[in-house]
Amino acid sequence: MSTKPSLPKGVRDFGPEEMARRNFIFDTIREVFRTFGFMPLETPAMEKLDVLTGKYGDEGDQLLFRILNSGQYLKSVDASDLSDGESAVTPKIAEKGLKYDLTVPFARFTVLNQHAISFPFKRYQIQPVWRADRPQRGRYREFYQCDADVVGTNSLACEAEIILMIQKVFVKLGITDYSIKINHRKLLSAITAEIGASGKESAFCTAIDKLDKIGRDKVFDEMHRQEISTASTEKLVPFMELRGSNREKVSALNDMLGVEGKPVLDEILRVLSLAETAGADPELVELDLTLARGLSYYTGTIFEVKVNNVSIGSVSGGGRYDDLTGVFGLPDISGVGFSFGVDRIYDVMNELGLFPDDTQVFSTVLVVAFDDQSWEYGWQALAGIREAGIQGEIYPEVAKPKKMFAYADKKNIPYTLIIGESERVNNTYTLKDMRSGDQTELSLEKVLEVLNTGQ
RNA sequence: GUGGUUGUAGUUCAGUUGGUUAGAACGCCUGAUUGUGGUUCAGGAGGUCGCCGGUUCGAAUCCGGUCUUCCACCCCA
Predict the structure, then answer these.
(1) How many domains does one find in chain A?
(2) Is there contact between A5 and strand B, defined as CB under 7 Å from any strand atom?
(3) Contact at 8 Å (CB) between A289 and A187?
(4) Is A300 a domain residue?
């Protein structure tokens, strides 16, 4: 008995026309990464769980896909583990997990290969990652990330290059209405200290991150629940009311934070000016104090890119992490990186109608034969067509003309090469333009000429 | 993880207060048309109504469970 097949929750197939569009995005991003000197890297789908856990916060750990051990995976589990529940059993039956992002595996790679790497090390990585999230619009359980990271340097040029790469990619993709939001973890810490809520940084961050979504009152409510005092949230008001250009915000912050804030603010200014002198559009970059980001390993500048007027979350994000390799035994390596979410960029471009209408052409010519002997004749001609670098195919059997031409139509093949008895006898080929319906009897040489120039 | 929502032909969807044989469009196949496609016309195939159970004389329809879809939280690309 056969069962109807189905796909697991949150994963998708990509058909031919979808792949053409996705590849356009991948190719664009890859090209930009290369022009900035990043080198390719791939890591396995699965990692040891101890590599993955603890890097993404508690929420992140819950979203890890765990892989059941092979063989007799229950042999080390006993009754007391079972009565203790999942937290006792899971580590004993699952030692591997699917990777959750590309940054942590990259850190693991860097540590394992430090003997072979010369720092600063720039790599890009385009691979799927998996998260056991509830699927939603723009949210999948398997999705592609395109990461570029630099490790082994503190230079703020790296941050500036991230801004430049984002802008370059979006220009090529035709996305114009978006903003690159930047902030700095140390700036958030300085503000937390200034309002007298030291030690509450992470609660502060998750709350303030929601400001544009739920409004000031609810953010304050949440902070109060997290034991941040009313006095503190009152002191926060002027920070929330900061408006103006990035430089105006920075100078205001300089006054508000005093000497404590100076180093961070200088960093931000430096990043902005490096980006601008290399041609970045300052209008698209916005210092946003409410940007916090959940991943716990960020320590410096953080980025997020949001396309305006679409109902999809951020399409890119990243930041600087001072010590990601430290947990793997290689301390004091600072890195900074970011990631494009191809799946969301695809959804955004679809929503904005940025993909060109022209349906992909997968074959330039279809060889159509009316009898078996002609098919053999066409088969040989096809070899010559392909030799000339033209994409072509033959209808694989002799069938009714209607069927063969309908195939060419459906597959959007612009030319058919028609062969029957008369062509075979004359040693010629009838080339038909499927759009106009015009057809002429030509030598193979002429056919190749038309196919090469005709497209 | 919490709350809601969806599921009927290959696809998009109708289907009345529970009532005989579950429909349409598009797609597919065949023919009109055995060396010429897109149009037109005629015909045809295709569904255990997501799955399991319950209520009922009778369930696509009501109830429960489960899986799936989409959405709001949480969080995130």
Answers:
(1) 2
(2) no
(3) yes
(4) no
Within-domain flag for A392: yes
Helix (H) or strand (E) holding A111: helix A103-112
Q: Which of A148, A172, A196 is the last residue of a domain?
A: A172
What is the edge-to-edge ordering of all strands in the sheet holding A285-287? A39-40, A121-130, A142-151, A335-341, A316-321, A301-307, A178-184, A285-287
Range of A71's domain? 12-172
Place of tokens 């992470």: A202
Q: pLDDT higher for A293 or A438?
A: A438
pTM of the model: 0.90
| CATH code for position A413 | 3.40.50.800
Q: What is the CATH number of the domain that holds A19?
A: 3.30.930.10
What Å value separates CA A425 and C1' B72?
71
Tens of pLDDT, residue by residue over A258-290, are: 888 999 999 999 999 999 999 999 999 999 998
- pLDDT tens-digit profile of A209-255? 888 888 888 888 888 888 888 888 889 999 988 889 999 999 999 99
Count, in order, helices (H) and strands (E) of chain A: 19, 16
Separation of A348 CA and B24 C1' (Å): 34
DSSP secondary structure string for all residues of A220-273: HHHHHHTT--HHHHHHHHHHHT--S-HHHHHHHHHHHHGGGGHHHHHHHHHHHH
Let me know: does A107 contact A325? Beta carbons within 8 Å: yes
Q: Of A142, A172, A202, at which residue does a domain stop?
A: A172
Please check whether strand B approaches the CB of A59 to within 7 Å: yes
Nucleotides of chain B in contact with protein CB (under 7 A) are: 1-3, 28-31, 33-38, 50, 67-77
